[in-house]
Amino acid sequence: MKDFIDFTYGRENTFFTDSVVHTPMINPFDSVLKGRFTMEAIKEGSPMGYETIYVTTQGPRLETAAEIDAYRRLGADVVGMTLATEAELLMEAGIPNAAVAFSINWAAGLDMEGVSFLEDESIERIASRIMRIAVNALSER
User: How far apart are CA 12 and CA 16, in angstroms?
Assistant: First the structure.
């Protein structure tokens, strides 16, 4: 993941509730961790978008076709309901982080049926591969 766009509201997204602290978000994801993850993904033969922009929406409802089109026009590649809040808090805490996302459904307007979800078996297989890549990327060598 390269960056994110945050369309959430009403979430606690700061540890600084008694003062104003401006946390730089120029590079919200650690380049070393991204590099290690990228190398492990290549070894695994897993195709990934390394310059991906993630848009975080409020949820829990799914997005409309018009919203998906608008996010695409803004440069977003992946839409989800998590990531931004966690990334913001990790940056405030000074904890290096990297993000990985995989799609379990094609959003409204992106296929003929409107919205389609992956089967649980496919999700488990993808999640297992990502976990293996993450463990290898985070292991001391």
Answer: 10
**pLDDT tens per residue across span 99-126:** 887 776 666 666 655 555 667 677 788 8
Q: Where are the domains of the chain?
A: 3-138
Is residue 58 helix, strand or coil? coil
Query: What is the pairing mode between strands 53-56 and 78-80?
Result: parallel
CATH of domain 3-138: 3.40.50.1580
Query: What DSSP string describes 72-136?
Result: HHTT-SEEESSSHHHHHHHHHHT---------SEEPTTSSTTS-EE--HHHHHHHHHHHHHHHHH
DSSP-based three-state secondary structure for 56: strand
